Automatic annotation (TrEMBL):
InterPro entries: Formiminotransferase_C_sf, Formiminotransferase_N, Formiminotransferase_N_sf, FormiminoTrfase_cat_dom_sf, FTCD. Residues 9-191 form the Formiminotransferase N-terminal subdomain domain. Signal peptide: none annotated. This is Formiminotransferase cyclodeaminase N-terminal like 1. GO terms for molecular function: folic acid binding; transferase activity. Transmembrane segments: none annotated.
């Protein structure tokens, strides 16, 4: 992707909130990132996408701004979400622990490093627990200094994968013991993480789990950077993948002739598994059970798409870009 002064300091936050049934509420949260309390637009900030999943009762809001502006945009959205979402009334098949469940911050521009994002992530966690009394947070990735534990490890430590986590046993990094209304929020920074979900035509979650176990990074022959859950979804099973960017050049990495997408952070090359490879691997494994893969969904964008669309939105002064995607082409 060609660099530009507009994009050189951009970062993205893929804000995960525990609500999707009330889409107007989620849009209200997104707009809080864009406008201050008086309704004045925050310059240099855009919301590229809002992904709602009804079964999961979870939405992902893609906020992009300069590293200098991201903190206030994200905190304002989080404040609004905490005022509108009550975890005591939440239900959904996707694991979650917080009204604002996840705040990851990723560098997009060449003048921003992961450590810069980690500084902002720690400030967001501190700001959230100060502004919204009763909220609690744990840190992951580069924000979890000095250990830099990954999101999956930190979630496991916090009991995120359990059906009913023991909130009294949790020791958050910031804020008080988690309260039932707000729950617990994960806040961190890392190279970009893409979300790629592949649906297989079965209701057999155990089969889905066996496929997930085979493709995740930790498995022999697994895909680098891929973390996976198998969840019931719209009468089928979804293989839900977090696709982490991994350091190194893409030499030798191909998927049906398609090279692994690559980008750089601070001059260091990174790459990520393409959606086509994940889909092909899931389809191959499902096919051994006589089951087909029936669709793939990207939650948001690839890293390069995210920066390109953000530059387009900001150059044209479009704050609520998610409303414009149908008519604007790169």
């Amino acid at each position: 992707m060609a660099s530009s002064s507009l994009g050189s300091r951009l970062v993205a936050c893929l804000l995960n909130v525990s609500e999707a049934h009330r889409k107007d509420l989620v849009e209200t949260v997104a707009k809080a990132a864009l406008y201050n309390a008086e309704g004045v637009r925050r310059e240099g900030t855009t919301v590229l996408n809002i992904f709602n999943d009804h079964d999961y009762n979870r939405s992902v809001i893609t906020i992009v701004a300069s590293i200098d502006s991201i903190r206030e945009a994200v905190l304002s959205a989080c404040e609004k979400a905490c005022g509108l979402i009550d975890m005591r009334a939440h239900s959904g098949v996707h694991p979650c622990m917080g009204a604002v469940d996840l705040i990851p911050i990723y560098p997009l521009g060449e003048d921003v490093g992961v450590e810069d994002c980690a500084t902002e992530a720690r400030a967001v966690a501190e700001g959230l627990t100060e502004r919204v009394q009763g909220t609690s947070a744990f840190l992951f990735g580069w924000a979890d200094s000095p250990l830099q534990r990954g999101l999956a490890q930190r979630r496991k430590e916090m009991g995120w994968f359990k059906k009913t986590p023991d909130m009294q046993a949790i020791r958050p990094d910031m804020g008080p013991q988690p309260q039932k209304r707000f729950g617990l929020t994960g806040v961190g920074a890392s190279p970009y993480v893409m979300n790629c979900n592949v649906t297989i035509d079965t209701q057999d979650v155990a089969m889905g789990r066996s496929i997930a176990a085979a493709i995740r990074e930790s498995a022999p022959g697994g895909l680098p950077g891929v973390q996976v859950l198998a969840l019931p979804h719209q009468g089928a099973v979804e293989i839900a993948c977090n696709v982490e960017s991994v350091k190194g050049s893409p030499t030798g990495d191909t998927s049906a002739g398609e090279p692994w997408p690559c980008f750089s952070i601070g001059g260091q090359p990174y790459r990520h598994a393409p959606a086509s490879l994940i889909t092909a691997r899931v389809a191959e494994l499902a096919g051994r059970h006589g089951v087909g893969a029936v669709g793939t969904a990207l939650v948001g964008f690839t890293p390069c798409e995210c920066r390109g669309l953000a530059e387009l939105a900001l150059s044209q002064g479009i704050a609520e870009f998610w409303k414009e995607q149908g008519r604007i082409r790169m």
